[in-house]
Design a protein that fits this description.
By secondary structure, the chain is mostly helical. The chain has helices spanning 2-13, 19-36, 51-63, 67-84, 89-110, 113-126, 131-145, 150-160, 163-166, 171-187, 191-203, 209-219, 223-231, 238-251, 254-261, 271-284, 287-304, 309-325, 329-342, 347-358, 362-369, 383-388, 395-402, 405-421. It has 24 helices and no strands. The longest helix is centred in the N-terminal third of the chain and has 22 residues, at 89-110. The radius of gyration is 35 Å and the shape is elongated. The N and C termini lie far apart (113 Å).
């Protein structure tokens, strides 16, 4: 951080023939921090007078999720690049190749795979950029292809794995290409090759490598080995934790699944995450522990200030309904009374409270029912006609309601006669 502050001070305080170069280096540093850190360095006000500065600014924008801002600066970088090399077409094509790849990445981030592949293929076919730029474009196409268009992916992989290419790639780029190469072996059912590459990646220290090896064991129906690989992973990334929990759940190991999911700060305080942990607790520790966890979680949600009163009320009613389903009506009533103390007009909560109280204190339930608001019936509605109309939508119900007494007698006699005809008789032979 001190280095960063000194760099900013130097860049801002000195203006000479090297100012553009210093600002470009600072912008590249900021872009790298955004690409490889969850808490990137704050962007500083830099000029965008050269295509390199615009390009680095675009990289920063894209890394922090501002795709539109990144695309705008990339187009500006392309214009500045064209202006700078207007007398040298070949140099312009070479310098603008990384800009084209980044434009392709913008489209890829938006989910426009077709447009992204077109931009990447233009760079590859024209071969204007250096080997590193071509390798990045080819690797991104492999990512888009996934388990489709395997022949094209194999061709693209050759552009990424040549000896001259790998020397110029950064370690994270080589890991990304090796990871995709491993997946390609899996998609083409080359399981032994897939296993060997997975082991190599794990030995190289790639965080996601255990996922590949676990995938191999899962494919071979060796669930215990798959779980062990993820459990023994040197770095428990979020993806590894979630995959481990999924495997444990598939095996029926709900206790292990709960342990793997507990304490994930990325999901802390999210209703869906709370719901999953509560379901696992219900399986492993019983309703008491589950209800206690849900009550604590709901208290934290209230104090977080991140959710509206209506959302919190709905979750409170859902909790009370769940508690009641576990045959704990008194505890359900306590939860609902707390809600009604804060929102006395909540009819859903009041109706559920009456139901809960009626299971252990019927007289009190009648008193609570008095709190229900009186239904205002418009004067033009005739209640007697409504009561007579019960069952109008059902022919059988209608007959039961309005069938005259004489018709009932006739119907009874008819049924009696029918039964008499069906009485079996004995025959002498």
């Amino acid at each position: 951080k001190q280095w960063y502050q000194r760099r900013v001070a130097i860049t801002a305080g000195i203006v000479d023939q090297n100012t553009n170069e210093r600002e470009t280096n600072l912008a590249a540093t900021l872009a790298s921090s955004a690409a490889f850190n969850t808490k990137p360095l704050k962007w500083v006000a830099l000029r965008e007078s050269t295509y390199e500065l615009c390009y680095n600014s675009a990289c920063y924008k894209l890394a922090v999720g501002d795709t539109d801002g990144a695309e705008e600066r990339l187009h500006k970088a392309k214009e500045l690049c064209k202006k700078e090399f207007e007398d040298d077409e070949q140099e312009f094509e070479y310098e603008q190749a990384p800009i084209q790849v980044m434009l392709g990445l913008c489209e890829q981030q938006r989910g426009n795979s077709k447009e992204a592949v077109t931009l990447y293929n233009n760079v590859i076919k024209e071969k204007h950029g250096d080997a590193q730029t071509v390798a990045v474009a080819a690797n991104n196409i492999i990512c888009i292809n996934k388990d489709q268009n395997m022949f094209d992916s194999k061709k693209k992989l050759k552009l990424c794995t040549g000896e001259q290419v790998t020397k110029r790639l950064a370690q994270y780029q080589r890991h990304s290409i090796d990871f995709n190469s491993c997946l390609l072996s899996f998609y083409t059912n080359q399981l032994e090759s897939f296993r060997n590459k997975s082991l190599e990646l794990q030995q190289s220290g790639l965080d996601l490598a255990p996922l590949l090896l676990a995938t191999y064991y899962n494919k071979e129906k060796k669930m215990d080995e798959a779980v062990k690989v993820l459990t023994d992973a040197p770095v428990r990334s979020l993806a590894v934790q979630l995959a481990l929990a999924q495997l444990q759940k598939s095996k029926g190991d709900f206790e292990g699944c709960h342990k793997s999911l507990s304490g994930l700060s990325e999901f802390e305080g999210r209703p869906g995450y709370i719901n999953i942990l509560a379901g696992l607790l219900l399986h492993t520790a019983g309703p008491e522990k589950c209800i206690g966890y849900l009550e604590d979680a709901l208290t934290k949600l209230r104090s977080s200030g991140s959710y509206s009163a209506s959302q919190l009320n709905e979750w409170t009613i859902s909790l009370a309904r769940f508690v009641l389903s576990q045959n704990l009506p008194q505890r359900s009533a306590t939860i609902l009374e707390y809600l009604l103390s804060r929102d006395s007009t909540n009819i859903k909560a009041l109706a559920l409270l009456i139901r809960s109280v009626s299971l252990f204190d019927a007289p009190r339930a009648k008193d609570v029912a008095q709190r229900l608001p009186e239904i205002q019936i418009p004067s033009e509605i005739n209640l007697e006609e409504l009561e007579m109309g019960v069952g109008v939508t059902s022919g059988r119900g209608l007959r039961k309601v309005i069938q005259p007494e004489e018709e009932k007698i006739k119907e009874a006699n008819r049924r009696f006669e029918t039964k008499k005809k069906k009485v079996p008789t004995a025959t002498l032979r």
